[in-house]
Amino acid sequence: MDTIEIAPILGAIGNHEELAGTPVSLMSAALIVADKSDVHYSRVQNPIIETFDIHDRVNFSVQRSHLRVDTENKSINLELTTDEKSASVMEYFEIFLARMLISRRAADFLKCRFELVINGTRLV
After folding, report:
1. Does residue 67 surpass a pLDDT of 70?
2. How far is CA 23 from CA 10, 13, 101, in A?
């Protein structure tokens, strides 16, 4: 690939980390939203529920995850259905707050609103 093609990809990869990253291009904003919205029980690799850490519990609790992009209303919604017996909504925020904040910045860069909906309740 030519440098002109590689540079945006490297910029997107290098700027999607939640604590220090920031959207620098449309590509990086899209990568941030996609990456930080990737939460679902299928991500859990540990087969032993008793040894789950908080990340395993939160991912395991998410039974349905849908990223809805509404171009007409300029909104990006992360819609989750969770089993609160596996992990509470508070535990979700304990580990995912930084991810939701960078997702909001990425949506802002895309001139959209970022909204989080968990079990039918709009939270952000």
Report:
1. yes
2. 12, 10, 12
pLDDT given for residue 123 in this prediction: 84
Determine how β-strand 62-70 pairs with β-strand 75-82: antiparallel
Given a cut of 80, is residue 18 above it in pLDDT? no
Q: Which tokens sit at 33? A: 């939203």
Asked whether the predicted pLDDT for residue 31 surpasses 70, the reply is yes
- Residue carrying the six token digits 């039918």: 120
Query: Interhelix angle for 26-36 vs 3-14, to 10°?
Result: 40
Q: What's the mean pLDDT when you consider all of the chain?
A: 91
Report d(CA 72, CA 78) in Å as an integer: 16
* Closest C-alpha to 102, from 2, 23, 3: 23
**Cβ atoms of 70 and 77 closer than 8 Å:** yes
DSSP, residue by residue, the chain: --HHHHHHHHHHHHT--TTT----SHHHHHHHHHHHT---GGG-----GGG--HHHHHHHHEEEEEEEEETTTTEEEEEEEE-TTTS-HHHHHHHHHHHHHHHHHHHHHTT-EEEEEETTEE--
